[in-house]
Amino acid sequence: QALSARAKSSRLFSMAEPGAINAREGEHVVGVAHIFASFNDTFVHVTDISGKETIARVTGGMKVKADRDESSPYAAMLAAQDVAQKCKDLGLTALHIKIRATGGNKTKTPGPGAQSALRALSRSGLKIGRIEDVTPIPTDSTRRKGGRRGRRL
């Protein structure tokens, strides 16, 4: 019988132990880490493989007090370590990684937190599968800010 994606993902979580994931011996339980690194903040958001069920989401701003430090590599590292710990507690063993910058008609370069978040995830003991850049690139965009002659410094 056909099961919806939601039913399939909820089948992983057993009723006996809330939050735990059932997997056969030697089989990796895979999640997807969406790292959104802008120049103002860094989000580390882990979902199940379909992307519908959130497992853990921590931002750089949740880890540091000063607003100017939200996008710093240190804040991103703390956020990634926190997320990795939650993933391990829930039984995830491997992650695919999707890195995203602001994109659109703004910058296509990931912020300063992207690299350190990725490094922290890989050092946490979780297996890393595919690493992919999913920054939205416009084929033809709305007009960019700055005017005809660009931003003059």
Automatic annotation (TrEMBL):
Any one Gene Ontology BP term: translation
GO cellular component: ribonucleoprotein complex; ribosome
GO MF terms, alphabetically ordered: structural constituent of ribosome
Keywords: Ribonucleoprotein, Ribosomal protein
InterPro entries (alphabetical): Ribosomal_uS11, Ribosomal_uS11_CS, Ribosomal_uS11_sf
PANTHER family tied to this protein: 40S RIBOSOMAL PROTEIN S14/30S RIBOSOMAL PROTEIN S11
Family the UniProt entry places it in: Belongs to the universal ribosomal protein uS11 family.
NCBIfam families for this protein: PRK09607.1
Name the record gives this protein: Small subunit ribosomal protein 14
Highest classification ranks of the organism: Eukaryota, Viridiplantae, Prasinodermophyta, Prasinodermophyceae, Prasinodermales
